[in-house]
Amino acid sequence: MKMKQEEKRLLQGLQKTVERVLNIPYYQGRLADIGIKQAGDIQSLEDFQRLPLTSKEDLRLNYPFGLFAEPQEKIVRLHASSGTTGKPTVVGYTQHDIELWADIVADGLRRAGISNQDVIQIAYGYGLFTGGMGLHYGSEVLGALTVPISGGNTQRQLMLMQDFGTTVLACTPSYALFLAESLEEAGIARNELRLRKGVFGAEPWTEGMREEIEHRLGIEAYDIYGLSEIMGPGVSMECSEHHGLHIDEHFYPEILDEQGNPCPEGVKGELVITSINKEAFPVLRYRTKDLTTLRYGNCSCGHTGWTMDRVSARVDDMLIIRGVNVFPSQIEEAILSVGGVEPHYMLVVERVGSLDQLEVQVEVNSRSFVDEVRELEALQSRVQRRIEEITGISVRVRLVEPKSIPRSEGKAKRVLDKRKG
Amino acid sequence: MFQLSIFLENTKGRLAEVLNLLTQLNVNIRALSLADTKDYGVLRIVVDEPEKVAEAMRVREYVVNLTPVWVLRVPDRVGGLAGVLTQLADEGVVVEYMYAFVEKENEKAQVVIRVQNEQVMAAAMQKLALA
Fold first, then answer.
1. Which of A178, A355, B52, B103 is most buried, judged by most C-beta within 10 A?
2. B58 and B102 share a domain?
3. Secondary structure letter of residue B38 according to DSSP
4. Which of A364, A372, A377 sits opposite B63 (nearest CB)?
5. Is A379 touching B (CB cutoff 8 A)?
């Protein structure tokens, strides 16, 4: 019975979003194509699931402001996601959207046990990318001492971390790892820092990577998820239970299979999100290209609703090697489970003759280096076997020197596909 | 004593880079051997004050390991090395790898030996009075 009421509320929220997007000519046309003229035409969740999906391509077609639902004078901020090819995708926010976003992020941080007692060092990039400012506004609403250092300038990051007594670090997982390395190099002992938690996101990462970061930095790591097209970081975040990422109630998630059909609860597929109560840039069934699973329920942290698994893979990151789908996160999982090598890797794909070849470059770990070639070869084949077990394809593993794989201050680039271009 | 083992990628000029660094650090290489595979190699060198050199290299991001090895003087004549190795084998010593060098002053051949079991080797050295 209670579920029924929740469903009713959800349906009202979705109807409001439909009403809102019907003000936008592009959506109006697409909805008219399937006979939807007004929000009232959606009478059930089943009706809703028949609505067309929105993709990044739709955003590009309407560049820059074509999908805004509010006149320009009501829009107070723009963000944009980096377009690797061509134009970026642009999103807008009203004052109300900015406040809503900040509240959502603050809620997430609170569930992670972060409070106004904390000093949050925000090492996500500030600017058109939503990472920096998204965390920033949330941190301020929470009342935490907010350090808007942005990404990069690693030596200064370390200095301020010590001097300001930073307790929470927010950045990408790959930058967290790089900071950990830099701390070791600088000879800064763990007890010289007050760091206790990390809020990491904006790139897919594995459980093994989490353990590595937690171990190296001596902190508890929280996964935060979001994308600018939906709002930015905070769409979902882990609580202290670390049992998936709780999706905020302003986002309605669905999981679809490759044909666009809904997946049953617990089955992996593409995450599709509809915004609820967002003004300037409402999105209807937006395809995130992130693969995950969903479940509904209550958590001891107080959250009720949808929880998603960590996103360990993006549809866009998928490599097709000799017809087999391979995700960089699978390789990461393999490397971290073997040990003896650093958690930095680079995937080089080449076509040799008519065959795709995947070379995995991985750094030898100085602590476990032994001088016998036989041992190195054994390490190499252990990594190789593990990758083959997980991905099902044969790869070539190449051991390289430490620090020879480029480090990232933002989102890590881990694939070099020489088959393209 | 300890030998320095250095992990090296097989890239053009990498070996020269390491040797230049050792020059800079004023390190004289007394013996050297290179084990290599397609992608990488292990450079093994005998130097004075290996701990100090290892530290200096680690600071410069090299993967360096101090490996216990034995240096033996062997008669510089036909069958010299064969004789010593036979004796060691009889004592149960298993050799992982070895390389040789000639010391100018006394014209004696010397070999650097890495063995599987340090204790067995120590006992053998004592018994055969090779130390």
1. A178
2. no
3. S
4. A364
5. no
Cβ within 8 Å of residue A396, ≥6 positions away: A357, A358, A359, A360, A384
What is the reported pLDDT for A5? 87
Tokens 């480090």 belong to A407
Mark whether B31 and B60 lie in a shared domain: yes
Q: Which ipTM was obtained for this model?
A: 0.82
pLDDT digits (tens, 9 = 90+) for A86-108: 788 999 999 999 999 999 999 99
Q: Which residues contact B36 (CB under 8 A, 6 or more apart)?
A: A373, B10, B42
Same domain, B88 and B53: no
Residue B75 Cα distances to A96, A122, B78, B129, angstroms: 90, 68, 8, 14
pLDDT band at A1 (very low <50, low <70, confident <90, very high): very low
Per CATH, the number for A93-314 is 3.40.50.12780
CB-CB neighbours of A24 under 10 Å: 19
Please give the tally of structural domains in chain B.
Answer: 2
* Closest to B44 in 3D by CA, of B65, B21, B13, B17: B65
Q: Do B40 and A376 touch (CB under 8 A)?
A: yes
Read off the pLDDT of residues A156-190 as tens digits, 9 standing for 90 and up: 999 999 999 999 999 999 999 999 999 998 999 99
Expressed as residue numbers, the domain containing B48 is 2-67
Predicted TM-score (pTM) of this structure: 0.86
Does the distance separating the beta carbons of A366 and B44 come in below 8 Å?
no
What residues does CATH 3.30.300.30 cover in chain A? 318-417
Type of residue at A248: D
CA distance B99 to chain A (A): 14
Question: How far A370 CA sits from the closest chain B CA (Å)?
Answer: 7
Q: Do B61 and A401 count as a contact with CB atoms less than 8 A apart? A: yes
A402 in contact with chain B, both atoms CB, cutoff 8 A: yes
Q: Chain A residues with CB inside 8 Å of B9's CB?
A: 400-401, 404
Which CATH number goes with the domain that contains B81?
Answer: 3.30.70.260
Domain boundary pick from B29, B45, B67: B67
Fold of A318-417: GMP Synthetase; Chain A, domain 3 (3.30.300)
- pLDDT of A339: 85
Number of A:B CB contacts under 8 A? 48
In chain A, what residues touch B63 (CB-CB under 8 Å)? 364, 366, 369, 401-402
